[in-house]
């Protein structure tokens, strides 16, 4: 059988190491980088539908929105200008993730986290105080730069700090913070939409999570991997012993040092990435964020209020429903944290995919049945509840599969020397497609109508098959031994030659318990 045959204990090697308070604290602080991303995802949709905000900064949009009295539920008023304002952040994040790549590699993961925090902080202040569109857009660009730096460095930091057996759990702390950020933003918008100046508070409060990660990053040690890579071997050894809670770290330290030897030989991360041995992680890292966005999740995250209004809820009820999806998003991420290192990444990806597909088909059928192609109709209370129930089941499925794994898997599958560039590819592709979906969703809804749910469902089917065939299990595999996973995969093995395997204890490949198809 294809990808499913990979078992996780490549080589059966296990490093000693405990779940220490030190590693828990370091990962908790670093994960707070996810808060800034999440807060932004949650805040923009609500703010751009506040009347006081629109009339101040986008008066023409405001006027047109008020004039729009169409009864077609699929084609409510949409403004490219406004969505462009929202999505501009993602373009800035995309661009800055390239700058983050070299900072993360040459100066360490922690300084990129710091850069992320401080630029986001400045952006939040400018936005909160904005008196004109220029300030608004400048602030937004800085927020984007902050997200680019944080998303590029935090997942790497977490994956490198964590002991192999807990890597999934600790890395998903990042996604958990994203979901908490989204929920906090939804709640704040809900309260603030009642006040004229509410938008200022909503935008300005983004400074709180930014402050946490800015100060937090200054207190964090860098990862042993990055320290060795930058020539600080002694310090790396100390940190490794501290995070693992044992002095018995020589094996792991040797693997890290071997990985760093390779790292020193490369001239350009980007050129190296194109070598055949990097083909497997590169292809997976391009496709995972692309697919993550084509699950359609951000249609719910950005447009939940619009969507719930479309299916017949009033203003307040639609916000409340968005809060409900927010809570489910957080809770289901916790489920992922609990099971990811036990059952593995593939089980979650596959189960999540099937569940999302079923829900998308159900929502498409229910909405199509109620509104047909004309988009005119009304839903009874019970009917709406069923639709909301399906949307919640869909959000839960995403939140324990593609949400966290979209950040975890790309951060753990590259060799050290190009891990930073690899993560940039992940962020850039993710931001690009988040931008595209944000930009075209309302137009797509207007044209494809309820078929839009089948469109995303089709993509979910494709991505689930892709995982089944091409994404090997990586749970419990030490991060610097990932090459063995590719070497043992039925499809990817042809790209990895024996000479590419520089794991300290090469015997491991021979002793490998990997069942080959
Ligand atoms: C995705 C975001 C999404 C969020 C929802 C993240 O993993 O990258 O695009 O909005 O999950 O929780």
From TrEMBL:
PROSITE patterns: MFS, SUGAR_TRANSPORT_1, SUGAR_TRANSPORT_2. It comes from the Eukaryota. Residues 26-475 form the Major facilitator superfamily (MFS) profile domain. The chain crosses the membrane at residues 19-39, 81-99, 111-131, 137-158, 170-191, 197-220, 282-306, 318-340, 347-371, 383-403, 424-444, 450-471. Pfam families: Sugar_tr. InterPro entries: MFS_dom, MFS_STP/MST-like_plant, MFS_sugar_transport-like, MFS_trans_sf, STP/PLT_plant, Sugar/inositol_transpt, Sugar_transporter_CS. It is a multi-pass membrane protein. Keywords: Membrane, Sugar transport, Symport, Transmembrane, Transmembrane helix, Transport. GO terms for molecular function: monosaccharide transmembrane transporter activity; symporter activity. It is found in: Membrane. CDD domains: MFS_STP. One of its GO terms (cellular component) is membrane. Belongs to the major facilitator superfamily. Sugar transporter (TC 2.A.1.1) family. This is Sugar carrier protein C.
């Amino acid at each position: 059988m294809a990808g499913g045959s990979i078992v996780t204990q490549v080589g059966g090697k296990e490093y000693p190491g405990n779940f220490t308070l030190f590693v828990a604290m370091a990962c908790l602080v670093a994960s707070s980088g996810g808060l800034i991303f999440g807060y932004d995802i949650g805040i923009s949709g609500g703010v751009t539908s506040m009347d006081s905000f629109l009339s101040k900064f986008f008066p023409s949009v405001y006027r047109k929105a008020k004039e729009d009295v169409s009864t077609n539920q699929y084609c409510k008023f949409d403004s490219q200008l406004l969505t462009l304002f929202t999505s501009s952040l993602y373009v800035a994040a995309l661009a800055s993730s390239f700058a983050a790549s070299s900072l993360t590699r040459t100066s360490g993961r922690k300084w990129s986290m710091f850069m992320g925090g401080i630029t986001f902080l400045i952006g939040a202040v400018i936005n909160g105080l904005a008196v004109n569109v220029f300030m608004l857009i400048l602030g937004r660009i800085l927020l984007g730069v902050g997200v680019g730096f944080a998303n590029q460095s935090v997942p790497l930091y977490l994956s490198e700090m964590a002991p192999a057996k807990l890597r999934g759990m600790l890395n998903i702390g990042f996604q958990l913070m994203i979901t908490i950020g989204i929920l906090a933003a939804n709640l704040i918008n809900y309260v603030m939409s009642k006040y004229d100046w509410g938008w200022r508070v909503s935008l300005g409060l983004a400074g709180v999570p930014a402050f946490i990660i800015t100060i937090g990053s200054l207190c964090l040690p860098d990862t042993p991997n990055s320290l060795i890579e930058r020539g600080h071997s002694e310090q790396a050894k100390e940190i490794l012993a501290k995070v693992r809670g044992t002095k018995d770290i020589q094996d792991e330290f040797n693997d890290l040092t071997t990985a760093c030897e390779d790292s020193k030989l490369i001239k350009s991360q980007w050129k190296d990435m194109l070598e055949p041995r990097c083909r497997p992680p590169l292809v997976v890292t391009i496709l995972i964020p692309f697919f993550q966005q084509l699950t359609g999740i951000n249609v719910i995250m950005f447009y939940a209020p619009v969507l719930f209004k479309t299916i017949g809820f009033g203003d307040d009820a639609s916000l409340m429903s968005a809060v409900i999806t927010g809570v489910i998003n957080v809770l289901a991420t916790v489920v992922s944290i609990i099971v990811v290192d036990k059952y593995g990444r593939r089980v979650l990806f596959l189960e999540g995919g099937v569940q999302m597909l079923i829900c998308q088909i159900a929502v498409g059928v229910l909405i199509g049945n109620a509104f047909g192609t004309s988009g005119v109709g009304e839903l009874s209370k019970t009917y709406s509840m069923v639709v909301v129930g399906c949307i919640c089941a869909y959000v839960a499925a995403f939140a324990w599969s593609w949400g966290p794994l979209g950040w975890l898997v790309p951060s753990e599958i590259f060799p050290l020397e190009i891990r930073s560039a690899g993560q940039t590819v992940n962020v850039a592709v993710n931001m690009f497609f988040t931008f595209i979906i944000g930009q075209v969703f309302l137009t797509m809804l207007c044209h494809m109508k309820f078929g839009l749910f089948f469109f995303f469902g089709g993509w979910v089917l494709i991505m689930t098959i892709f995982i089944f065939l091409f994404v090997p299990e990586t749970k419990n595999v030490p991060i610097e031994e990932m090459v063995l996973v590719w070497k043992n995969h039925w499809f990817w093995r042809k790209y990895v030659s024996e000479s590419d395997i520089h794991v300290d204890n090469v015997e491991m490949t021979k002793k490998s318990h990997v069942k080959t198809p």
